[in-house]
Amino acid sequence: MIVEKHENDCFKSCSGHSYIRKNWLGSIVFPFSALLQQSEFSDQIDVLERARIFKRNCKALFPKRRIITTVFNDEGIQILVTRYIKALNPPQQLLDIFLHDSNATLDLIARFVSLIPIMPDTLDENDGFDIWMTSERCISLAIGNKEEHAILLCNFFLYFGKKALVLLGTSMLEGHVAYVLTQETDEYLLWNPLTGQCHKQFDSFCPLQSVDCLFDDGNVWFNIQRNNTPVAVHFDYSKESFWKQLLPKSFQGTKAQSIQPEEIIYSDTNKSMVEDLKNRIERTLKCKIMEWRPKQPTRWNRQCTFILQQILPKLELGAGSLVLSEEKSEFERLLQFYWVAGFPIQMPYTDVQSVIDAVYQTGIHSSEFPQTEFALAVYIHPYPNNILSVWVYLASLARHQ
């Protein structure tokens, strides 16, 4: 609407006059999606503020316990940790190995996650600047931090319909850790995603020292129980006397959209590249062992090497007990003539130098007995996306006098 004032050509004594005229200048369209996004943005700000206050209050109760409510994604946007949790498909290659043994499949999935190289933490989580990748990004780059490993394993377990949550705590061996908690029929299991090992809640050999925080795709819970050791914790997080929850029940019906993809697309690992890498590691290790023994000759026992080469592939899939009788008999014949000392090393592949360092630390090469012989076998098991499991078996043999 426009108000226009017009003056005519009459004398100055004449008064001017004004009138109202409607002119169409155009239109501005506000799509409903924009209004909805504005509403969602406002809600996100409210939730992030709630998360900040929640973390502050929890730290006031138990300053030494860990809690993470929000992190930054790889685009630099601050989001709730709950948005990282979503059921995701493991590699089909792993699902096809133990078709009729679901427990063996879960163990293999945990092993696969443990083979992804670990990225050391460079920031203090108390600074509030944690940056987490999506599970797809973690797989494609073949690297991840402790929390990203736990999220990936949790998402894989959700794919199988398991009740799974990410657990933040501390370990006597690893310091700050992220585990996966699964609820079975009559017990809780604690999974270490960096080793692939599973422990029952009351397992005295479990290295987990404290249970501080849980989160899934819908909420974050902070442990307010006086005793936070795994054997003493009540994991029923529905009880408010044991667990303090971030979002009230009124919020839990409207979950924020996950930042994870609908599915993960995997790529095959080049087997010829793996074979070349195996040969290179084997040649390098033989040269290094001879370098480490400058004053002693280094002799290689081909018979023992052949036996070890047959054994290593079986160890990868947990079938070490299925060594063929032929291999057993050959090894027993070898023991009639030699004392044999050695053991296999297994590690995720990061670089050749890491393998060299691991072999050197065994000290098997340091035998000063003049007639010592050695056997060396290397095996690399390829998984999708260039994730590799490296096995090295170095043994020393001393002939019976």
From TrEMBL:
<dbReference type="InterPro" id="IPR056290">
    <property type="entry name" value="CEPT76/DRC7_peptidase-like_dom"/>
</dbReference>
<feature type="domain" description="Centrosomal protein of 76 kDa C-terminal">
    <location>
        <begin position="274"/>
        <end position="395"/>
    </location>
</feature>
<dbReference type="InterPro" id="IPR056288">
    <property type="entry name" value="CEP76_C"/>
</dbReference>
<feature type="domain" description="CEP76/DRC7 peptidase-like">
    <location>
        <begin position="130"/>
        <end position="246"/>
    </location>
</feature>
<protein>
    <submittedName>
        <fullName>Coiled-coil and C2 domain containing 2B</fullName>
    </submittedName>
</protein>
<dbReference type="InterPro" id="IPR052434">
    <property type="entry name" value="Tectonic-like_complex_comp"/>
</dbReference>
<dbReference type="Pfam" id="PF24656">
    <property type="entry name" value="CEPT76_peptidase"/>
</dbReference>
<dbReference type="Pfam" id="PF24652">
    <property type="entry name" value="CEP76_C"/>
</dbReference>
